[in-house]
Amino acid sequence: MGIETIAQSELGVSEVEEPHQTFLENALAKARHASRATGLPVLADDSGLCVPALGGEPGVHSAYFAGRESARHERDARNNARLVAELARHADRSAFYYCVLVLVSSPGDPTPVVVDGVWHGEIALEPRGTGGFGYDPWFVPRGGDRTAAELPADEKNRASHRGQALAALAARLRTV
């Protein structure tokens, strides 16, 4: 069985608001919105960086932790500056990326497939690397010495929270 993926932008589907306080609720809202707009099964995700010392922040607010204005790279810089400033008063620098994937067969699917992935690590004292995006230059995966931004893309994609969630989805779909 093959699966063809098409970006929602290619189908003219608009982005949906993410007003919820959990990754799961946001991913489900995205999936149902895109399925309603296309009439197709949809896979959607929500993900972010969680820092226990900051009460789980930036969490579901990761993309807009320091505001919504400006282009992505400018927001990333402000988000990272806020993260580092708020973390400066804490000894615990542990963090984890979290991703939840939701697959719906239709907008009203009462039994969506839900899987997740967690990538544990800590926030570095200085940013390193040019790959990736967002918090990657600051995130050092557990057991490693390179930031996510220093990892080759294929290695990052296998180990990351998204990679783990996709692997879990593939395993779940093999049993359906």
Concise summary:
This protein is an alpha+beta fold.
Portion of residues in beta strands equals: 15-25%
General shape: globular
Question: Which CATH-level-2 architecture?
Answer: Alpha-Beta Complex
Percent in helix: 25-40%
One letter per element, helices H and strands E, the order comes to HEHEEEHH
Specify the CATH class.
Alpha Beta
> How would you state the average pLDDT, rounded?
94
CATH topology: Maf protein
**Count of structural domains:** 1
Distance between the termini: 12 Å
The main sheet orders its strands as 1-2-3-4
Count the DSSP helices: 4
Task: Give an overview in words.
- This protein is of the alpha+beta class and 176 residues long.
- The protein has a single domain (18-175), classed as Maf protein, CATH 3.90.950.10.
- It has 4 helices and 4 strands.
- It has helices at residues 23-38, 72-87, 153-159, 161-175, and strands spanning 42-50, 94-104, 113-123, 139-141.
- A 4-stranded antiparallel β-sheet has the order 1-2-3-4.
- A hairpin with an 8-residue loop joins strand 2 (94-104) and strand 3.
- Helix 3 (153-159) crosses helix 4.
- It is globular.
- It starts with 22 loop residues before the first helix and ends with a helix.
List the helices and strands and how they pair.
Layout: H1 23-38, E1 42-50, H2 72-87, E2 94-104, E3 113-123, E4 139-141, H3 153-159, H4 161-175
Helix pairs in contact: 3-4
